[in-house]
Amino acid sequence: MRITIVFASLLTVVLAKDLATAKALAKAGKIEEAAAAFGVAAAAAQKQRDLVAEQKIAEALAAFLDGLPPEPTAKQKVSASMATAAIVSSLNPGHRGVFVSRTALIRESLYDATRTGVFRGVGRYSVLYRGRGKNGDSQAREIVAQYAQAISRCVPAPESQRSRAELDEDDTKILVASLREAQQAAIKRGFVELTMHITTEMVAILAHIDPKEAEKCLRRATATLAKEPDLELLIKWSGMLRARLGKNNGPYAAIVASKMEGATRPPAGTGSAGGTPGGPQSALGVAWRRFRRGAPFLTIKRDPKGFTVVPKFKRAREIEVVFKPGERVRRVGGVHILFHGSSAAVQWIELKEKEGFPAESSHRSRWRAYYLLANDETMTVSTKGVAFKRR
User: Domain total for the chain?
Assistant: First the structure.
């Protein structure tokens, strides 16, 4: 027992040193080196199945990325997406992290490419999705793979940038067909935000060659929205169309705006963002020794109405979470879980009870390890990472 405790203490010191190195590099303005160091620290914590260390690294990583601009500037030449690429390169490709997720970071970078129309570096992400998915992958992986491979078609080399106007007719047809297939799959599984980005990419292409087909494509996507859609997402969507289409956005923005009547604005924020540690052990803390070796301590299942969260430890009850706009948080026996649309993320675990409750927001936390769940898909969470089961 003493040997185990000493080894665990040494391991904690090593991980803390990795995190300190990443923070020091960031403070020195060495952004890409810092990003890679954050990735190394996260990968080390994941390899050792140390979720407490991984969540500390995730908190620091989110603050680091939030401090970077969405696009390079004269003052800061490294954007958040460029830093993300350095982080991703340091993470284990086969690991689905509980707090630092390679696939979630890549998906956010693809979203950034669609939001800004800047595709530099996107080509490298399509490599991640080559070949068949591994056992335990989510259904969303296949759709994001197609999205990544489609938009990478206009990037012939990792560091090049090519505009949609330069695509030849054959490239355009293949690109639109691939995106349409991904759009249909995303709609079918209820992935609203993913549908929104794929559709925006299609409209940005079609608006220049077939405006009527572009409108048809957009109407097909908006027709599948809930009766009371998330107003924040619609505002974001309208903004993306304006950014990508410029003066030509009129008819397309109007289609999205027509869905805003009756849309629901999520709460601006409730609760406190943190808590004070040091209380009695949480329900998870009491049972934690059982789960250290990799047994799942939580499952999250999606159904047509929302999610069912099932803790695998005593003194914690199963809960139901109904779909609602905005980012919402639930606490189950020491596990804090975030929900946004059809996605879920473990925000943090506490082995000792804390006072206070994490804040809810109208906006999704961009750098959290959000995983998309299809209907009747179950996500299991353990110290080994995240895995998915299909019905």
Answer: 2
